[in-house]
Amino acid sequence: MRRYDLMHQVNARGTFLVSKACIPHLKQAQNPHILALSPPLDLSPKWFGPHVAYTMAKYNMSLAMLGMAEEFRADGIACNALWPRTGIATAAIEFALTGKDGLAPLPDARDHGRRRPRHLHERLAQPDR
């Protein structure tokens, strides 16, 4: 339960809490936006089976953005979710996929400082074939 609680504290609760704390400042901004890195809401069982706790935590972030988009529409605050096309290596993903603690170094991450970084937009800008 500690891992479950941690995932929900960081993802769902963190997104909600930080977003709400920023609202007074965003109401004064010229072009206010909140952007969460969270998935589209797809209730297909394939997303829940292998890692239900992680999927629930990430979907809660998406639900927060959906709700806040409507709640703050009149204030002109845009709330959106972005889901990268490729995976992002995090400790949570490593654990969800392997069940191992920590994040093992990935080939692309080992020499991060010596190589030109690859940006997601380079991949996303390519049309599907």
Automatic annotation (TrEMBL):
Q: Which Gene3D superfamilies match?
A: NAD(P)-binding Rossmann-like Domain
Organism's domain of life?
Eukaryota
Bias class Basic residues marks the residues at: 112-121
Q: Which Pfam families does the UniProt entry name for this protein?
A: adh_short_C2
Ranges for the region named Disordered are: 101-129
Q: What is this protein called?
A: Short chain dehydrogenase
What organism is this sequence from?
Answer: Pseudogymnoascus destructans (strain ATCC MYA-4855 / 20631-21)
